[in-house]
Structures are given as C-alpha cells and as structure tokens.
Automatic annotation (TrEMBL):
Native source organism of the sequence: Rhynchospora tenuis
InterPro entries: RVT-Znf
Pfam families the UniProt entry points to: zf-RVT (PF13966)
Protein's name according to its UniProt entry: Reverse transcriptase zinc-binding domain-containing protein
Domain Reverse transcriptase zinc-binding: 45-128
Amino acid sequence: MFSTVLPATQLATHLQLLTTNLHSFNLGTQLQDDLPLWKLLLPSYKSASMYSLLKCNPLELSPLRLLWNLRAPPRILTFGWQLLQQRLPTTDVLQKRGWQLPNRCYHCTVDEETATHISFHCQLFKQVSALVYQLASISCPMTGDTFKLLQCVRCDKKQRELLLITCFVLWRERCDRLFNSRQKNFNALVEDTLSE
C-alpha cells in the first residue's frame, strides 16, 4: 500500500487519518439490504425457470467430467486429472520452476520428458499399450494423443480406462526409475497394467 517504509508513529497517524476519512464517507440516504435477484425469465426464482435454462443451454461435458465417470481407483483418477491439467511434475515443468535437471525421458532416454511424451509418444508407452490392448481384446485407439483420447466422448469407456491405467503404470515406473533406481521389465509393466 505504501511505497516507502514509514516509522511506526507516522504509520499510526496515516492509519488514523484513513479510518477517519472512511467513517465520514457517506454512501447515500437510501440504503437497502442486499437482496438476491433472479433475472432469468421470471422476477423471482422458480425451479421451472432453472429447468428451462438447462433445456435451452445444455451443459457440455467437460473432459474432466468424462474422466471422473471412469471406473478406476481414486489414485488413478487423480493422476488422470493431473495429466489432463498438465500438472504432473515432469522434467519440463520442474525446469520451469527453477530446478536444474537434464530434460530427458526416463523410459526411452531419447526425447524430452513432457506429460504428452510420457503418455503417448514414448516408445515404451506405445509397446506396452499395444500389447495391453491386444491381451484385453480391446481395439487400440492410438490415433491421436492421450489428451484427445481421454476427452473423446465417442471413445469406448473401456478404452479410456485402459489408456489411463497404462499411463499411470508407466508414470509410476518412471518415478521408480528416477527415485528408487529400480527398473521393471516389459512383461512386468504389462502385468501391472492388466492387474490395475
């Protein structure tokens, strides 16, 4: 509020002057209590007016709403929310926050690590997801990126669930490689995905 630091005595004087000015400020003589106003179709709120609003303007399904309707454990749904919101602590995000880390994928060690790369473009993800879909007898929706597939209304719910679980298992594997220096083999990753 103040551009310079004031001694305590001057600060007290300024605050007293400010409160005196605020107390003397007049808003007018016709003060009324605040009232909620419903300005849609009728002058007062009626449930019928709200239903007519919903009929005229149906609410669109947000990508996050599609995510929360999946049948998966809460930890996987939370992971999916972070993935769709670009909130996973990938190397590129950590670098933006000032961390000094080499930006490489911990799976393929070739490309930069981003949420999109880990959850779609990484070679390990492509191999694991292709085998998981084959073993689960579900057609593989690998025609775009994970973000579009998770948000796709026309995509089969099972496809989206399996895609999200695959992303989660590979994220967990990435964290194990990074923090615990442990690495699972390809078959163990496929088994983990199918068991989730």
